[in-house]
Amino acid sequence: MVPEKKKIKKTTILLGVLDFLAIVCLFLMYGPISYFRNLWVTTAMTTKSHKYLARTFFNDDTINKIVSTNYVKSNGETDASIIKVGEIKETDSYESIYEEQILKKDEGNDLYKIIEVTGPNYKGYMAVIYDPSRVTLATAKHFGKGGQTIDKMLENNDGILGINANGFSDGTSQNLGSIPTGNVIKDGKIIWKSGTTGNLIGFNNDNVLVLYKGTPEEAIEQGVRDAMEFGPFLIVNGQPAEVKGNGGWGIAPRSAIAQRQDGIVLFLVVDGRSSSSIGVDMQELINIFTRYKAYNAANLDGGGSSVLYESGKAINNVSTLRYIPTAWILK
After folding, report:
1. Helices (DSSP H) in the chain: which residue ranges?
2. Considering only CA atoms, which of 264, 260, 193 is closest in space to residue 227?
3. How many other CB atoms are there within 10 angstroms of residue 24's CB atom?
4. CA nearest 230: which of 251, 189, 202, 250?
5. From CA 164, how far away is CA 151, in angstroms rounded?
């Protein structure tokens, strides 16, 4: 009889705990405090395969209303004349720890360095690239027909390190990563035309990171050599974007690219979806880049695609290398 009573007691406690968790969940989803509800929906709706998490609790009208009130409003387009490529000042004194991290080169490596970036709930890595002329857009070997993992892209393009670029629209089906979301320009030519006029992120012939909202044809006329479409733009001409609510992207693993006024290029990746690093939202990406004096910065595809790869290994925490259509690489 005693064991049976213990069993009943444990079952009662378990049911009580489950009831409590259900009440908490319902309160967070439907209660008067909108923060968690907005975070849940925006995080889910910006993933490739987990949108059902939002639709489990809310109908499309509610989801659309939440998404419409959480967004990033960027400010214009890049003024390329402000960036002075090659004007990196050698110094023995630094105004901040962040400047020292950027400007103090690793011994024996004048090309780039990797620094760790941390915050209260996240951990990431930033590649600091001193020569922007060596940054180029790499594409999958069978671009448009099949994606490729970033290690193979680097191998095929004599790359030293790289970060994922475009999003893609073919989900987890075969030929994963074959269809880039948005236009793609390579070596001054349009190699993928989506019919959209969106956020082009690329480099011009003067090796300046250009954030452009026109058509790919117009971008090429402006001297853009390599570009891909994604976003949002985070910093334009030194002005941080205005973030409404949580920015509309939730908290997740992130990849982003930036350039300082002295021409230094920054590849940033932040881990997410783990107890040691939950990820960041758009505002935190802006905050990170602001600390490191980024003058122009943009968000790249994130989530499971986020990877910074160097010398035969992923720098960040990656469970598996995803097939992707494009990557920004250092040659």
Report:
1. 2-30, 35-45, 52-55, 60-68, 97-103, 150-156, 216-221, 282-291
2. 193
3. 11
4. 202
5. 11
DSSP type of residue 260: E
pTM for the complete prediction? 0.89
Rg of the Cα atoms in the chain: 22
Among 323, 229, 300, 302, CA closest to 50: 302
Token pair, residue 186, equals 């390579």
191 has pLDDT over 70: yes
Given a contact cutoff of 8 angstroms between Cβ atoms, the answer to whether 140 and 146 are in contact is: yes
Handedness of CA 242, 243, 249, 252 (dihedral sign): positive
Q: Alpha carbon of 318 to those of 168, 171, 292: distances in Å?
A: 18, 18, 25
Residue 281 backbone phi and psi in degrees, to 5: -100, -175
Query: Residue 200 and residue 222: Cα distance in Å, rounded?
Result: 12
Convert the pLDDT of each residue in 100-124 to its tens digit.
999 999 999 999 999 999 999 999 9
Which residue's entry shows tokens 């180029």? 136
